[in-house]
């Protein structure tokens, strides 16, 4: 692939897959379509996401190529690959499948797992257990376009939903948060609050729980900041 890129910020899932394929077939162009997108620092665990590739004007006959060989070629572009592919297959119904894939990307629920950090050493096992037990009925969210993407997306409010939330206490600063959400939910902004642009936020849940438990940390939580150390999907 002639890859001179050194860091993950210099590449993308799209480039890591389509560039080797374009090179392998010496094609004029390759179009990549995937089911959903995540930020570059999010780890994709489990079986991954479906994607589709359209190859234009290849010099080699695509149907004569071993898909296992192609798969190995893609996965071996780097000594420590950022992205690997599996279960490649020829698609004779690409238009229909791509339409369904795009439809699923919008309608499907997604599961996330992250390590959450809260400033001020304000987390307690009692607080975390209370949120864990009382948030299982679901949480409707209002999310304005995150500040970090405002330069390229319109500033609009979106209604999203957290269908399931579970929390595990680590210590006074850290907890493990697992979520099942509607597609398109901004997880980082749910945790941080994004300066009030996501309501309610994780800190809002902590404040509400603290008040209901009559803890003396309610005021301090109002000025606390929360962020994600590692996000997995």
Keywords:
alpha+beta; six-stranded antiparallel β-sheet; 233 residues; two-stranded antiparallel sheet
Secondary-structure blueprint:
Blueprint: H1 13-25, E1 29-34, E2 51-56, H2 67-75, H3 94-107, E3 109-118, H4 125-134, E4 139-144, E5 157-169, E6 174-182, H5 187-192, E7 198-199, H6 202-212, H7 218-222, E8 226-232
Antiparallel strand pairs: 1-2, 3-6, 3-8, 4-5, 4-7, 5-6
Notes on the protein architecture:
With 233 residues, the protein is of the alpha+beta class. Helix content is 29%, strand content 25%. It has seven helices and eight strands, in the order H-E-E-H-H-E-H-E-E-E-H-E-H-H-E. Helix 4 (125-134) crosses helix 6. The longest helix has 14 residues, at 94-107. The chain is elongated and about 70 Å long.
In what order do the strands lie side by side in the largest sheet? 7-4-5-6-3-8
Largest sheet properties: 6 strands, antiparallel
Strand % is 25-35%
| Spans of at least 5 consecutive residues with low confidence | 1-7
The rough form would be described as elongated
Structural class: alpha+beta
The number of helical runs is 7
Q: List the helices and strands in order.
A: HEEHHEHEEEHEHHE
* Average pLDDT reading: 86
**Radius of gyration, taken over Cα atoms and rounded to an integer in Å:** 21 Å
Helix share of residues?
A: 25-40%
- The rounded distance between the terminal residues' Cα atoms is 28 Å
Number of strands: 8
């Amino acid at each position: 692939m002639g890859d001179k890129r050194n860091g993950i910020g210099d590449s993308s899932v799209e480039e890591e897959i389509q560039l080797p394929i374009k090179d392998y077939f010496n094609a004029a162009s390759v179009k990549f379509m995937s089911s959903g997108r995540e930020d570059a620092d999010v780890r994709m665990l489990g079986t991954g996401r479906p994607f589709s590739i359209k190859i234009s004007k290849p010099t080699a006959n695509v149907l004569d190529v071993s898909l296992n060989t192609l798969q190995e070629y893609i996965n071996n572009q780097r000594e420590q690959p950022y992205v690997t592919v599996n279960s490649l297959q020829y698609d004779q119904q690409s238009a229909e499948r791509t339409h369904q894939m795009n439809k699923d990307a919008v309608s499907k629920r997604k599961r996330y797992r992250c390590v959450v950090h809260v400033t001020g050493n304000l987390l307690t096992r009692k607080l975390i257990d209370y949120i864990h037990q009382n948030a299982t009925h679901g949480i409707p969210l209002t999310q304005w376009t995150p500040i970090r993407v405002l330069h390229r997306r319109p500033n609009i409010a979106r209604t999203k939903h957290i269908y399931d939330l579970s929390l595990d206490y680590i210590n006074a600063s850290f907890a493990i948060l697992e979520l099942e959400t509607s597609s398109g939910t901004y997880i980082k902004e749910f945790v941080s609050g994004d300066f009030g642009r996501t309501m309610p936020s994780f800190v809002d849940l902590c404040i509400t729980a603290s008040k209901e438990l009559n803890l003396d940390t309610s005021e301090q939580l109002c000025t606390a900041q929360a962020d994600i150390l590692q996000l997995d999907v």
